[in-house]
Specification:
Helix content is about 35%, strand content about 15%. The chain is α/β, with parallel strands linked by helices and about 300 residues long. The protein binds aspartic acid (ASP).
């Protein structure tokens, strides 16, 4: 990998992605091989927005590599409350840690913060922008369940504000994948994302739909997302689309038996709990895959005992 900072999945080539996924598979197979590799390493966690999976899996990953974390804690209990700028906060915490993980409600915050630090900064979600480490675990899960070649995927829900969707869609253009985007008109992918996707991949591989029905039988993977209530400027607009898409066993009658259903979680009501017990459900494995994938990413960024791949 050629990057110190990981801000968007657009930075990742197919080779970069495969390097991380292959390393994650090795670690998944034998975590003990890397158990003490980073005994003196500290990862700084800066979460300005709620997080369960991303924060805990980064923490687990660093600890399973033998290192530890320093956590800014909640915004309420930090100097941010006293008016400290993000630039100052990251400059202070880089003095305590070997790498930083940042989640922030403002789109572009990770890019801006990365310009103030020398240690690697990983974007763990910037508003409705990007979430590239989620993408890596999504790709790992897709590769395990359906493969990344000759794949047809449906990505459904809040495509406008869903940062996991923006990152995943860009990364998938590195592979031979047909992407179908399913959403109400008001939650379609931002036009600039669609434009970029068309630049990055043959346009025939990108399609937008308002209904799942017409496309469901052809899908290998269905990636469902939560409507991002917290990003709506107007609660009434949220209420108009809330509950618009719900998957239950009746919905899946038209689906292939092999269909893999994914969700970055948390879910609200998009996937009925009855699906959890079916072979379609991959979303809890997907969340668990966050640990080996983030271990692999940290290993590659921090260097490993073979000199690593950090070359700029
Ligand atoms: N956990 C994911 C994120 O932080 C998805 C979500 O919140 O809906 O973007």
């Amino acid at each position: 990998m050629r990057h110190d900072h990981l801000i968007t999945s657009k930075q990742l080539s197919r080779g970069d992605i495969e390097t991380v996924l292959d390393r994650a598979a090795e670690i998944d197979e034998d975590p003990s091989a890397v158990a003490d590799r980073y005994a003196d390493t500290l990862l700084g966690l800066l979460f300005f927005e709620p997080s369960t999976r991303t924060k805990m899996s980064f923490e687990t990953a660093m600890k399973r590599l033998g290192g530890d974390v320093v956590d800014m804690g909640s915004v309420e209990s930090s100097s941010v409350k006293k008016g400290e700028t993000l630039a100052d906060t990251v400059r202070v915490i880089e003095g305590y840690a070997d790498a930083l993980v940042l989640r922030h409600p403002k789109q572009g915050a990770a890019q801006m913060a990365s310009e103030f630090v020398d240690v690697p900064l990983l974007n763990a979600g910037d508003g409705a922008g990007h979430h590239p480490t989620q993408t890596l675990l999504d790709l790992y899960t897709i590769r395990e369940n359906a493969g990344l070649e000759d794949l047809t995927i449906g990505i459904m829900g809040d495509l406008k504000y869903g940062r996991t969707v923006h990152s995943l869609a860009h990364a998938l253009t590195n592979f031979d994948v047909h992407q179908h985007f399913i959403s109400p008109e008001s939650l379609q992918l931002p036009r600039e994302v669609v434009y970029d996707l068309h630049q990055e991949q043959d346009g025939t591989q990108i399609r937008e739909h308002e209904s799942l029905e017409e496309i469901l039988p052809s899908l290998d993977v269905l990636y469902v997302t939560r409507i991002q209530r917290e990003r709506f400027p107007d609660e009434n607009e949220y209420q108009k689309v809330a509950g618009e898409y719900q998957i239950d066993t009746d919905t899946l009658e038209a689906a292939s038996d092999e269909l893999t259903i994914m969700h970055p979680l948390p879910r609200v009501d998009e996937i009925a709990p009855e699906i959890d017990e079916t072979d379609h459900a991959a979303y809890f494995d997907q969340a668990h895959n966050g640990v080996p994938v983030r271990m692999a990413l940290l290993d590659l960024l921090l260097g490993g005992d073979d000199g690593g791949v950090r070359d700029d």
